């Protein structure tokens, strides 16, 4: 239960951090909040030879709303979202989601961007970023590039990040007042990893759904969109269409059996979580 | 396998230690600083026994490397009682309400609760129970812990009736 030996670097700029990644290649890992990486190192499931600690890079410590975009720097902790960070449906959604992430001390240290970089299938922020069509800003030797959330998640703990790159920022659109956002998850105990979760974003026009996005998490190797379930809402009153949308989400997902739950149980949970997330959006 | 000289304060006392990069803050407090009040249970961030305050933030000391704490102000369970051993109000509440059995988890619960009582928010039954769920008591003596912190919060004027 002690991590294997490694070399430690604490750069002061993103450029220095990227240069360290270039120098050390696959041996190097970024250390931000450490709430997922350090346990895997304690178990020696991860044995990085070099840790690049980004906690002393002041340029990554930001969280601000700018031109309708919420810009989340790599050092923004989960706890920063416990109270709405911006007026409107997205700030309120993030506050409701944040309460479900692990426990209070973990939320004080773990970071939003770290969750996206780690890409745990049961990460609340991953499903949320997918539902909101977020953009991930990746820093590398040639500067920054943008990756759409839909292209980010490639499998269990696997993302579109390339060797030598680091996630510097996530951008979320601050949806307008005609949007409603909702969240629901099921975990056996408070703070546990969810067995299933759903995040929905609905744009309403005269009470009917004009646009809809639904993301599911915790059920497979990566968070995924449920386009059929979202399509079932279009043109409908969300309350009336919630159940049929939920049925489509359950029919369209492909949960896996594991030691925590059989696939059929997870499919049932998806049905209930999608319905509850839509109800949460309406109530919000 | 880098080694680092790290300076920080623990309970107001300056410390200068030389550590391997992989030394956790918890191991460093225990082995380099001789402060064995911070206990290690699971060593992977689940049980909360090693909770200390780093710059007033509750932190799993098993999930932070000591080298990361360079320049920080750390508080541990050793800093709670008065120098003559008189328990502080929270510790006294734990004793009065049977908030400990074997005592192994107690330092973590005390530091977590210290933070809860210092925050700018009043506690309610729901928020208290949710926050205390952060840590594990393997004796399952949770009820006494809840009662102890509730009592301390009431006395400190931080309880929402």
Automatic annotation (TrEMBL), chain A:
Keywords: FAD, Flavoprotein, Oxidoreductase. InterPro entries: CO_DH_flav_C, CO_DH_flav_C_dom_sf, Diverse_Substr_Oxidored, FAD-bd_PCMH, FAD-bd_PCMH-like_sf, FAD-bd_PCMH_sub1, FAD-bd_PCMH_sub2, Mopterin_DH_FAD-bd. Coiled coil: none annotated. This is Xanthine dehydrogenase family protein subunit M. Residues 1-177 form the FAD-binding PCMH-type domain. Gene3D superfamilies: 3.30.465.10, CO dehydrogenase flavoprotein, C-terminal domain, Uridine Diphospho-n-acetylenolpyruvylglucosamine Reductase, domain 2. It comes from the Bacteria.
UniProtKB/TrEMBL annotation, chain B:
Keywords: 2Fe-2S, Iron, Iron-sulfur, Metal-binding, Oxidoreductase. InterPro entries: 2Fe-2S-bd, 2Fe-2S-bd_dom_sf, 2Fe-2S_ferredoxin-like_sf, 2Fe-2S_ferredoxin-type, 2Fe2S_fd_BS, Beta-grasp_dom_sf, Diverse_Oxidoreductases. Pfam families: Fer2, Fer2_2. It comes from the Bacteria. The keyword Calcium does not apply. The keyword Nucleus does not apply. Residues 4-80 form the 2Fe-2S ferredoxin-type domain. PANTHER family: OXIDOREDUCTASE WITH IRON-SULFUR SUBUNIT, XANTHINE DEHYDROGENASE IRON-SULFUR-BINDING SUBUNIT XDHC-RELATED. This is (2Fe-2S)-binding protein. It comes from Roseomonas alba.
